[in-house]
Amino acid sequence: MTQDYRESIKELVLNEETFLRLMLKGQLRGQEISWRRVVVRPVLIKHKRHLQFSYFDAKQDITKNYRGKEAEEKLAEVLTLPFSSIAVQSTIEDVHVQISKDGKAIFSRSKPAKTVEQPNLSHDARKKLLLPADRPDTFLQAIGIMNEQGKVLASMQDKFAQINEFLKLLEHTGELAHFEKRPVHVLDCGCGSAYLSFATYHYLNDVKGIPVQLTGVDTNGQLIEKSNLHSRELGFEQVCFEKAAIIDYEPVVPPDIVLALHTCDTATDEALVQGIVSQAHLILCVPCCHHELHEQMRAVAAFRSVWQHGILKKRMADIVTDALRAQVLRLMGYKTDVVEFVSSEHTDRNLMIRAVRRAKAGDERMMEEYRELKEFWGVVPYLERLLREKGCWPS
Fold first, then answer.
1. Cα torsion for 194, 195, 198, 201, to the nearest 10°?
2. Which one-letter DSSP state was computed for residue 301?
3. The 184-189 sheet, strands edge to edge
4. What is the pLDDT of residue 60?
5. pLDDT band at 228 (very low <50, low <70, confident <90, very high)
6. 125, 206, 221, 235: most buried, per Cβ within 10 A?
7. Which of 216, 214, 210 is nearest to 182 (CA)?
C-alpha cells in the first residue's frame, strides 16, 4: 500500500501536462526529519522544463532545480522521508495522502480547489506583494524581517508571508479610501510581538498616506514594554501598546478597524465584541485554537461516525465555531465572508473572518439562520453570551 501511494504521487508529479504543485509536511510520530516541509513545482529554465524542489526548515530555505532522470530520483528521495501529509495539485484534480502513525496511507481525491488551465512554469513565481521582498524596506529591516542587504531572512519567511497576506486582504475590502474621519483608529487585539501592528501602521500611514492612530493590547507585560520601546525606536509616534485583557480594554476613541491575528480560543470572540460594541467599520480576525464549543457540541445522529474520531470532531468544532461567529457578525449588521488567509504551507490556522459594517443589527432572517445552526448543535456560543452581557444582542 505504501509503495502504491508513492507510485501514484510520482505519476501525478511527472505528468507534464497537468502537474501544478506538490507539498509534503508534518512529521510522523517517532521519526526524525530535517525539513519542516518540501514544495515541488514545475519551472522553465533556459526553455527546458525542470522540477523545482524547495526545502524549508526553521532557519532557512534551500531551492534546487532538477530535470529528467535526476528529477525523478530526487522525487523518489523526498517521498521516502517520514512526512505525514502529502498534497498534490493538478489541473484536473487535487490529491491528498495522510499517513497514519502505523504507516497506513489514507488517499483522497477532489476537484481542483482553483481552476488553472495549465501549469505556470515561470522560474520566479513571486506574487505582487504590498511590502515587496526584493526591495530594501527600512521598516522590515528595523523589525528584523529583512537583513541589511534587503533580503527577507529565511527564519522570517512565514511571518513575512502572513503580514503581506493580511495587508492584501485588508486592502481588498475596498474600504480604506472611504473613511471620512482622520486619523483612522486601529485596535489590534492580542497583539503579541506586534509584527502585524507595526506592519499595518507602516502600510496605512507610510505607504498609503492614511493618517492612523494604532493601539495594541495584550496581557503579556514584557511584550507590551518591548513593543512600546520598539515603537519609539521606529519613530511611530501614533502607535502605543497597553497591557490589558481584550474584553476589559476600554478604548479612549472607538476603533474604526479592529484586528486580531491568531488570538486563542475565546480571545477571538472578545476581539469581535470589541469591534461590534464600538461599531467598527472593519473587523478582520484570524482565529487560532478552538476549544469552547468543542466541549459543548453533542453527537448529532447524522454525525455519530464523525464523533468516533477525535481529529474529525475537533475540525468539525472549528468549522461550526467560525460559521457561528460569521453569522453573528451578519446578524449585527456586517457584510461578512470567511476567506483563506495564507497558504497552509505557512500556517495550519489559515482562515480569516472579514467583516464590513453595512446595515442595522437584528435582521430576522439572519437571526433565524443563527438559531437553527446553534440549536442543531445544541450550543450557546461565548460570542452571544458576551454580547448579551454588553446589552448589544438584538431582541
1. -110
2. G
3. 239-243, 212-218, 184-189, 257-263, 282-287, 351-357, 334-340
4. 64
5. very high
6. 206
7. 210
The H or E element containing residue 339 is: strand 334-340
Measured in degrees and rounded to the nearest 5, phi and psi for residue 185 equal -95, 125
Sign of CA dihedral 14, 16, 17, 21: positive
Are 68 and 77 in contact by the 8 Å Cβ rule? The answer is no
- Confidence label for 118 from pLDDT (cuts 50, 70 and 90): low
How far apart are the C-alpha atoms of 87 and 55, rounded to whole Å?
A: 15
Question: What is the band of 264 on the pLDDT scale with cuts at 50, 70, 90?
Answer: confident
Residues 6+ apart with CB under 8 A from 374: 324, 380, 381, 384
Q: Are 282 and 393 in contact (CB under 8 A)?
A: no
The reply to whether omega before 183 is within 30° of 0 (cis) is: yes
Chain position carrying cell 488551465: 117
The amino acid occupying position 341 is F
- At residue 225, does pLDDT exceed 80? yes
Q: According to DSSP H, which parts of 104-253 are helical? A: 138-142, 157-171, 195-201, 221-234
β-strand pairing of 184-189 with 212-218: parallel
Partners of residue 363 on adjacent β-strands: none
Please report how the helices 68-79 and 2-13 are oriented relative to each other, as an axis angle in degrees rounded to 10: 140
- Residue 258: name the closest of 364, 353, 325 by CA: 353
Please give the C-alpha separations between residue 16 and each of 7, 13, 40, 63, 117, in angstroms, as whole numbers: 16, 8, 13, 20, 13
- Taking the alpha carbons of 288, 291, 296, 302 in that order, is the dihedral positive or negative? positive
* Beta-carbon-side half-sphere exposure of residue 52 (alpha carbons within 13 Å): 19
pLDDT bucket at 274, cuts 50 / 70 / 90: very high
Return d(Cα 245, Cα 224) in angstroms, integer: 12
